[in-house]
Specification:
Chain lengths: ~600, ~600
Amino acid sequence: MGYDTPLREYRFVLEELSGLSALLDCPGFQDLSVDLVRAVLEENARFVQSEIAPLNAAGDRSPARWLDGAVETPPGFRQAFSQYAQGGWQGLQHEAELGGQGFPKLVGTAAVENLNAANLSFSLCPLLTDGVIEALSTVGSEQQQALYIPPLIEGRWTGTMNLTEPQAGSDLSLLKTRAQPQPDGSYRLFGQKIFITFGEHDMAENIVHLVLARLPDAPPGVKGISLFIVPKFIVSADGSLGERNDVWCASLEHKLGIHGSPTAVMLYGSGKGEAGEGAVGYLVGEANRGLQYMFVMMNAARFAVGVQGVALAERATQQAWAYAAERLQGQGLEGPSKGPVPINRHPDVQRMLWTMRALADGGRALAAMAALARDLAHHHGNAEERGRQQALYEYLVPIVKGFCTENAVEAASLGVQVHGGMGYIEETGVAQYYRDARILPIYEGTTAIQANDLLGRKTWRDGGAVAHGLHRQMLATLDELATAAGRGGTHQAGLKVIARHMEPALQAYAQAVDYMLDQSSAPAAAFLGSVPYLMLSGVVLAGWQMARAALICTEALGDDGRGPQADDPFHAQKLAACVMYASQVLPRAPAHLASIIDGADVAGYASQASD
Amino acid sequence: MGYDTPLREYRFVLEELSGLSALLDCPGFQDLSVDLVRAVLEENARFVQSEIAPLNAAGDRSPARWLDGAVETPPGFRQAFSQYAQGGWQGLQHEAELGGQGFPKLVGTAAVENLNAANLSFSLCPLLTDGVIEALSTVGSEQQQALYIPPLIEGRWTGTMNLTEPQAGSDLSLLKTRAQPQPDGSYRLFGQKIFITFGEHDMAENIVHLVLARLPDAPPGVKGISLFIVPKFIVSADGSLGERNDVWCASLEHKLGIHGSPTAVMLYGSGKGEAGEGAVGYLVGEANRGLQYMFVMMNAARFAVGVQGVALAERATQQAWAYAAERLQGQGLEGPSKGPVPINRHPDVQRMLWTMRALADGGRALAAMAALARDLAHHHGNAEERGRQQALYEYLVPIVKGFCTENAVEAASLGVQVHGGMGYIEETGVAQYYRDARILPIYEGTTAIQANDLLGRKTWRDGGAVAHGLHRQMLATLDELATAAGRGGTHQAGLKVIARHMEPALQAYAQAVDYMLDQSSAPAAAFLGSVPYLMLSGVVLAGWQMARAALICTEALGDDGRGPQADDPFHAQKLAACVMYASQVLPRAPAHLASIIDGADVAGYASQASD
């Protein structure tokens, strides 16, 4: 099935929901305009739909192949990446002084979603390259930035993150890869890294690996980890490529999904490189602060993986909606007709279609809120506001990552269900989404890791300040809903449904935050509820954005159904999505709360799992 | 990973929770005893663990293959099925007068679960054969029963169900396959059937297809469908095999999972049979009552698919628990230790492990309640009670099918998550469960079809009588919980957690039933909530059984921790599962209710999916 970039929805989220126009008034965006953003996203849509989306199924059926150390990507990937690079898409959201185009993250996020919706496997290469660019531009030396960033932005080279080792996954304190200092100031790395996405491939001239390793005198644990640049081909001072480094792809994993994306086992220092034994590496920043630096890259990557979740939910949703409009089966509820009706006339199919739509749209609105906060944290004129927005962004990143990726699994599963038996046949294509989606809540930190972050660093550390602030803002939206519903009019019923579910959801959010603050000295009780706490937060915050969207839609449609944009079918459909989000998704918040507040009472029982 | 038949759990469910001993006092079971049942299940466990379970991963990697019309099953399947047949396992729950062993369905259900947990793909062949035996023993003529049932029970032949056609899936009124009467009283069938599980294979001498088709003068719709026996090889009056019939496997589907099970496209009447053009078929029962007859088989098969859900949840749960006990990662909550701890010490992993365990155990308890009802419906001495139990069984079948299969998908997904990145690698084996599980909420009637059945035939038709009766029984259990918790003692905290969640869950159940009864004239509003209604019913009814289990456990452990079975670690673990079910699963009931009672308010918005 084809994929249609939801351009109208992007416009709504950027312009109507997130205030793109106001953002572009901030310092640093003077060369941009709403019209330019529209034009860029339209061009992005054209390119992605025609060149990237058609490779998705083929990449699934012809996985990346390991051939004696080299890796052949699926048919068409190489050419497509070259076009992607030539189009300047890799630089879209990077700063102009580094060779990027300097668009806000809010805009970049739409382009990232679009690319991932078209082809998740392909998109992983640019996604990780973005992370390497962001890390080097933050913590790399001037020389490192000058040497590595421009070719990465130009798409001549690509980047990877090397964290995981067989014994060290979620727990990076167990890292063993070691870096030996050399007389010339460089290092030689020795070790094995696993699960390295696009660790080897044939789409670029060089690959820039960012690698976590230990120096000989490093303290144990996470405080003894340093960050290194290890290029596949050693880069001369003039930027030209030199000897083949001693870093090798030993094999590729045989995975459930994302077949088009090579997941490599990487060996550092096997002695086969032209440069001699040990992979030549260069320290980034100070020694032993590698994990801290990697967090820069990880935060960018975690946010982007959350957006992958939105993208996959969107893709699955589109295909389910299209199938349900075509597949004829069963009588309509109106009574016997002349023949079978499209299955989108059946209420239960509608429930599934809207739940998928609500999960995709809610996640997108949440991610946009986070992206906007990131942009304001860098561009707002007021320093205090920049600080507030940075805190908000950091609070939202684990929620975007955890909530949107778990939802992608749910949406993909519902997508199979809408297709019935046909969904289980690989040729239909929706089984691929179900397989692809399953990695999203795992890589770049499992949902549990995100939940630890939300609880430990983003709730306990600030005493719930960000969360309480959000709660106050959400209560204000609830008041607006009540006022709007009180006016009567065509959309009163929908607004009332939203308000009815928002109220207990907001209560649940406040209670969950306060319960968690109370449990800061009882970690077992708190961490038993950490993932439900993250999911509750996502349900409520995305629900808030959907409630805001509903208010915008009723304004556009008019109380009398004759508002300024009443002729545009978009707002009526969007309002339906908001109502269905409230009805089908918001009730999960009180359910999560009920599990969370059991923590202290059930911790003793739960711990019997380790008896 | 190996699979361990949970024999101790089976004993608990059969003997302690379901009252096996009392059941065996019913007429017809005089030759059976609790000890014999134990011995049979132990032998079943031994056989299944050693001969069937080891073929599961191989069947996934070497799918059934189509070879010019013939089908080669995966390595070992043929020999294993022969051993299965020789062991008499196909006849375990069938009546003695037909050549079966006459065990109660309660016992047969444990054996079915065990087989499916070991190897879902393999088990589909016996599962469908069971359905054909049940259908023919109910509606076949004496001659048909004598000719077909013994070889099916002996495992020399196997059976299939042929309903679906490309244009007729959930909606069987669209069936086109036609049956032409012949002068000798037989029929010739012409048409195409799809999604025919084990429609062709190499494990048996003959295959007995039960096929839905239309007679030339049949009325349109579901009232014009008749049921036919179409054997692969025509059977002579003496039971010997004759000519190859004109029924052919045209191809096999390329599926997301259950690779070991061939899913066939079947052609009836292509003219290539030795018997000439058209597949020779024999009418079962009366003309035009085929769908009604097929429901006999479907009810048996639907229940069995629900049990498949339990089985898959059990298998995924076992593997996750084993991995979590071995994988070392992270510090324990007690503070820094000498090294990493097994991940089952982390509260969030415990949450996942127990949620999986709760879903598997809760589903098993629910299925046992249904199986017991079926046994009592056939064997209870009192006719009125038989009627009550039959109504209960019929009420429970769609819930067992829908709830347990949706839970299998959730449990398999959690199982991948517990494994982290390793879960996404196919060699680990848990990705197979995630793929296999996804068919369960689809085949033998999607969850929506089950929900239609629960709502239309099992709630509206009897005015909620069965549901109201269950609600009264559940309130009595809630009273027992309060009394037991009031006694104080070691397990008071756990019982209080259960009671705390049971109360709103029971309220939600009662309110959902009453809401649905009120909406019987507003089908859109009701059917929007039909699947949530089914899931709510499953959550609450299985939760009730888990509450009963908790009461049994506290009795066994003793209020002072020195009860009659305090030394057996089983009851303490089981009690923990019951507490965690209450904490993690029961809160879903009020959330489902909140979605359900929106029906009338949101139906107008939802219907925009078909605009």
